[in-house]
C-alpha cells in the first residue's frame, strides 16, 4: 500500500506492523493482507468512528486499527463548549467509538483567559488536528494558553 493511499484514507490513524520486524516482500502475502485489511477498515470505521481487525495467518498476519478524525474533533469540540462554564477552564470526557472502545479527551486553558478567549484558543488548536495528529492513535496540541489531548485509553485519573 503506497503512502498516498494512506493519506487519502481519512479515517486511518494507525496500522500495527509489529508482526513483521524485517522488510517484507513487495506483492507478497503480507502486503496482500495489509491491503485487504485497509479495505476492510475503510468500510468498517466510518459507521462507528472506530475499527480494528486482523487478516491472514502468521507469519504474514496484518493487524490494523482505524480511528476517524471526525469523532475526535466532535469530542474535543464538545469539551471546548463545556469548558466555558467551568471556572477552572478544564474539562475531560469520553465518547463511545464502538461496542468496547472509547475515545478519551481533555481540554484546558490557563486561568488568566476569559471563557470566551479560552473557547477561541481551543477552537484554533482543534483546527490543527489534520496537521498535527494524522497517523497517530492519540494526539495533543499545546499552545501558550490552551491545550488538548486525546487517546483511545484513559489517561486522566478521576
TrEMBL record:
Q: Does the keyword Repeat apply?
A: yes
This protein's UniProt keywords: Repeat, Secreted, Signal
Where in the numbering of this chain does the Gnk2-homologous domain appear? 50-155
Kindly list the places in or outside the cell where this protein is found, as annotated in its UniProt entry: Secreted
- Top-rank taxon, per record: Eukaryota
Give the CDD domains listed for this entry: Gnk2-like
Q: Does the entry feature the keyword Secreted, yes or no? A: yes
Q: Name one GO cellular component term.
A: extracellular region
Q: Which InterPro entries match?
A: CRR_secretory_protein, GNK2, GNK2_sf
Instruction: Enumerate the Pfam families for this protein.
Output: Stress-antifung
Signal peptide coordinates: 1-21
What protein family is recorded? Belongs to the cysteine-rich repeat secretory protein family.
Q: What is this protein called?
A: Cysteine-rich repeat secretory protein 38-like
Species, as recorded? Populus alba x Populus x berolinensis
Amino acid at each position: 500500500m503506497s503512502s498516498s493511499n494512506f493519506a487519502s484514507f481519512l479515517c486511518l490513524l494507525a496500522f500495527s506492523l509489529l508482526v513483521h520486524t524485517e522488510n517484507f516482500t513487495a506483492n507478497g502475502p503480507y502486503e496482500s493482507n495489509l491491503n485487504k485489511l485497509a479495505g476492510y477498515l475503510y468500510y468498517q470505521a466510518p459507521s462507528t468512528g472506530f475499527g480494528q481487525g486482523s487478516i491472514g495467518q502468521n507469519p504474514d498476519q496484518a493487524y490494523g486499527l482505524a480511528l476517524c478524525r471526525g469523532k475526535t474533533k466532535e469530542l474535543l469540540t464538545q469539551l471546548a463548549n463545556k469548558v466555558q462554564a467551568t471556572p477552572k477552564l478544564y474539562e475531560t470526557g469520553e465518547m463511545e467509538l464502538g461496542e468496547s472502545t472509547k475515545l478519551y479527551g481533555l481540554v484546558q486553558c490557563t486561568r488568566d483567559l476569559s471563557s470566551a478567549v479560552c473557547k477561541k484558543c481551543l477552537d484554533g488548536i482543534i483546527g490543527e488536528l489534520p496537521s498535527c495528529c494524522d497517523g497517530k492513535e492519540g494526539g495533543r496540541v499545546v499552545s501558550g494558553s490552551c491545550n488538548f489531548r486525546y487517546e483511545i485509553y484513559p489517561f486522566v485519573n478521576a
